[in-house]
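note to self — DONT lose this again. spent like an hour looking for the file last time. sequence + predicted structure for the chain T wanted, 90 res
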Amino acid sequence: MTNDADLTSIRETLRGYIAELLYCEPNEFGAEDAFSEIGIDSVTSVELMDNINNKYGLQERAEVVHDSTTLEKLAEFVAEKLADSRTALR
């Protein structure tokens, strides 16, 4: 389980990655906007997941982006994975 501060931090980090990949400003899309509607495709999914894996030490596949469908859901997924890894280390 993650706290709100962790989730907010993850969400804003991911928002920055997405904005960079889409060549837009972070405030140009919402946390609940569908990735397919803001321009995330298979190529940007791979790039986004590479950024996420590098930042957080994960080894997830790009399909996670497609399955998550929104920034909010993707941030929740990453937060859960990080919480799981912290729990496993205890």
